[in-house]
Design brief:
Elements: H1 2-21, H2 28-32, H3 54-64, H4 66-80, H5 82-86, E1 92-98, E2 111-120, H6 125-191, H7 197-232, H8 256-266, H9 268-289, E3 295-304, E4 307-317, H10 323-392, H11 398-433
Antiparallel strand pairs: 1-2, 2-3, 3-4
Helix pairs in contact: 1-6, 1-10, 3-6, 4-6, 6-7, 6-9, 6-11, 9-10, 10-11
């Protein structure tokens, strides 16, 4: 009766084991929400957690990240420079005491002259100064957009790594549960004399290895949490909710030619370089305007006693005769314009190359995921189910069963990593585009 009872136990455990093994196609995100973030580390779970999806984290960063806030203030400051750049200089007032012999009032002197003057820059200079200031605003806006794109990419990359760590933890916990059942089967079979004690020890070794992996994965999840909080401008210990899913890109959204054209229009770095070219060109034309003099108009009433007895009107111009200085300034402006243009070309070439690298890596990761999901994983699962049945009937040894289980685990891990790799590459591409695909 004891033997029969042991056989029933073994068969039930194997049945449960086979049933759980058939659940390997369940998406990682489906059960990830059931994990307690600090089950392995023993840390107390903080009460408030955000980030069940990446969009929530991006919105938080847009409104709370101090670096983005500083960029916004810099843009506001740049806007305020436009009006002063195009304004006339302040007028001047000069008071001259004529026949001055000592302290006194205008009535005590021979006369007092009041000279009021206003300088007018040569025609076009004010407009060019305004153009330079406006181009500088566009530079700051491009820098702000580049910072937003970079921080968004950091958040998306960290979130993908966080999702991967959570998914691998879930997978290892499932395998650990399966190995616990398998160890029980091996114990029953060993007690019946149907297998060697080595099978029980092998199951325990596999469980120990998985527990070690869980410690490393919990550390990776913690690092990803810290990276997310830093990118968002939160405290490093602030909690992040368990990830539910990764954003998916619709077919047709990633097109090489369309992306290249889109990047030329929306890339923040190219926009900033274009603004630098505009500012350099406006500055060059402004320097050329310095060949012509500025004009100062003045009126000068003269007071004798208690009344104004005479008026004078004057015109004053500066004489730009320092030709060597002018030529040096114009050559400098030409060189700065050429440098800005070449820097823009270099940025276009570098971004185009980076885009092709990211697109190639994205395509490779997508094809690898399809291969694993469509071929490798089903084959590994069939092998595992066959090994389970064979072990149940004493036709397959324990080592073969463990290797089959490892193959399924590895396939699921590789599929998850391929999915995360796609998200990392998409984050890179969106950083180049400057907006979401």
């Amino acid at each position: 009766m004891i033997v029969a009872r042991d056989d029933v136990v073994a068969r039930r455990v194997l049945t449960v084991f086979i049933t759980l093994a058939g659940m390997t196609m369940v998406p990682v995100g489906g059960a990830a929400a059931q994990l307690q973030p600090d089950e392995l580390s023993g840390r107390a779970t903080l009460p408030v957690a955000i980030g069940a999806n990446v969009q929530e984290l991006l919105e938080w960063a847009d409104t709370h990240n101090p670096e983005l806030a500083a960029m916004g203030y810099e843009v506001d400051a740049a806007y305020e420079r436009i009006v002063p750049a195009a304004a006339l200089p302040d007028p001047t007032l000069r008071v001259t005491f004529m026949d001055f012999a000592g302290p006194g009032t205008p009535n005590d002197t021979g006369g007092t002259q009041y000279r009021l003057g206003q300088t007018f820059p040569w025609w076009g200079k004010r407009d060019l100064r305004k153009a330079v200031a406006t181009a500088n605003v566009e530079q700051f806006k491009g820098r702000q957009q580049a910072a937003v794109a970079e921080i968004h990419a950091r958040i998306k990359s960290a979130y993908a790594r966080y999702y991967q760590a959570a998914g691998l933890i879930r997978l290892n916990q499932e395998v650990l549960h399966l190995l616990t059942g398998l160890e029980e089967v091996a114990r029953v079979r060993y007690a019946r004399g149907l297998t060697a004690q080595q099978d029980v020890i092998r199951a325990q070794v596999e469980k120990t290895l998985l527990s070690s992996e869980l410690i490393d994965l919990d550390t990776e999840r913690h690092h990803a949490t810290v990276s997310l909080n830093v990118a968002m401008g939160r405290q490093q210990s602030a909690p992040i909710a368990e990830p539910q899913s990764l954003p998916r890109i619709q077919p047709g959204k990633v097109d090489d030619a369309a992306l290249e054209a889109r990047i030329r229009r929306t890339n923040p770095l190219l926009a900033m370089q274009s603004a630098q070219v505009s500012a350099a060109d406006a500055n060059r034309r402004l320097v050329e305007k310095n060949r012509y003099p500025d004009v100062t108009l003045m009126i000068a009433p003269t007071q004798y006693g208690g009344s104004i007895d005479s008026w004078e009107a004057m015109v004053e111009v500066n004489i730009p005769i320092r030709l060597a200085t002018r030529r040096a300034q114009e050559s400098e402006a030409e060189a700065m314009l050429a440098a800005a243009s070449e820097r823009q070309r270099a940025a276009e070439i570098e971004i185009a190359g980076s885009l092709q690298e990211s697109l190639a890596a994205l395509d490779a990761a997508g094809r690898r995921e399809q291969l694993i999901a469509g071929t490798l994983l089903p084959q590994a699962e069939l092998t595992l189910n066959s090994a389970l049945s064979g072990y149940k009937n004493a036709q397959v040894d324990f080592a073969t069963l463990v290797e089959a289980q490892r193959a399924v685990k590895q396939a699921r891990q590789d599929r998850l990593r391929a999915e995360v790799e796609q998200q990392l590459r998409i984050a890179e591409i969106e950083s180049m585009v400057g907006e979401e695909l």
